[in-house]
Amino acid sequence: MDAATGTVPASEPAHDVVASYDRLTEDELGNLGIVLGAYRSFRGDRRGHIAYVSMPITSGKRFYDALAAEGVVSAKELAEKRGKDALYELVIKPNIAEGVALADRLGEARKDLLFIAPSVFEAKRWRWSQDAYMSLWYRVIGELAGKHYLMDGWEYSTGGLQEVLFSMLMRWRVIRSYNVREAAREFMFKDFHPGMDDRALFEEVKKMWEIRVHEADGAEVRLDQALANAVAAIRDLQARGFDASGLIGPAWRLSMIPWRSPYFGGASPDEGVPAMTPLYLEMRDAIREIACAVPA
Fold this sequence. Notes:
By secondary structure, the chain is mainly α. The protein has one domain (17-292). It contains 13 helices and four strands. Strands 2-1-3-4 form a four-stranded parallel beta sheet, sandwiched between helices. Helix 2 runs parallel beside helix 6 (130-143), helix 10 (223-239) packs antiparallel against helix 11 and helix 10 packs parallel to helix 13 (278-292).
């Protein structure tokens, strides 16, 4: 979408959220309900005591570094060169270990918080699709988490970038009570609190606005910094000959948040920081240039 005109360039990467949403089967929705029901059994101030940790599993910076080390550009080529277990041994296994170790370290440092490490849940063993898996964690972030931590290299992961996008949409109040179900569709969770009346839904959404995003070292991540990280990752991958198209769409939508937010033209949700910092404006123009250069 063009930040000046509000139009979508012909070259903007396709947004597959509708297809993803429709791919969730009734069985998958049933399984999601079971797992979410277990999480919802925690009562009281869940957001004040629960943090979610974004961690790449099948991709991330380690994935591209492994491809580069082997002189290949895709998971298929990696398997052909090193065998069918190469992705697991070189990328998935160490990503899981690093992510769980990060959540454990954070838990040791922050005794007042419980940290959710999504990689512990082996969804593939239970034949969950990627769509169902991501839908679960969007629900967890939206319903339970008051803080969202990021494993180093998150910006190289499409799933990680999408999770940051979701948290920033909440933080910047783009998700509001009157459009929450539209947002739910975009992030593949059907029937978002269907039993709530309008007042209860408004109060729930107000709680969603309080989420904070943090780097692994605890530093808070602002929107402009998140966008700068995403742009740097895209540029790095393109310079190294990799396909970065999966990152461009989420980064583009990240850049549009101030234009969709009630903070537009004024202060941001971060105290003392304008909605459109010089860094944000520079990165907004950069992602526009990148997106418009993608072949139609």
